[in-house]
Write a structure and sequence with these properties.
Strand content: under 5%
Number of helices: 5
Order of helices and strands: HHHHH
Helix content: 55-70%
Shape: elongated
Radius of gyration: 18 Å
């Protein structure tokens, strides 16, 4: 049990701050190379990672998650599960 009414808001603040800080340390999808992407994300091998990076190199940086989804969905084999793994690992 919480001993006073102040402990609960403090715990909530710490939790929220921890979530925010963890996102600061994620690498940008626009900075990663194909080898790292293939190594970091289960379900992405050398071919899929090369496609993602080539798309970025040819058409510019991914501006946000929706842009990433729209641009990579047109290539077969890069499904929703893999895309969500990328979203959890990298920032946009």
């Amino acid at each position: 049990m919480l001993k006073n009414k102040i402990e609960f808001p403090i715990l909530i603040c710490i939790f929220v701050m921890t979530l925010g800080i963890s996102s600061l340390f994620r690498t940008s999808i626009n900075e990663v190379d194909a080898n790292t992407l293939a190594k970091d994300i289960s379900g992405i091998g050398e071919v899929k990672s090369a496609i993602i990076i080539k798309e970025r190199d040819l058409n510019g940086k991914y501006t946000n998650f929706k842009d990433f989804v729209d641009r990579t969905k047109k290539y077969g084999g890069i499904g929703e599960v893999v895309i969500n793994r990328v979203n959890k690992k990298y920032k946009f």
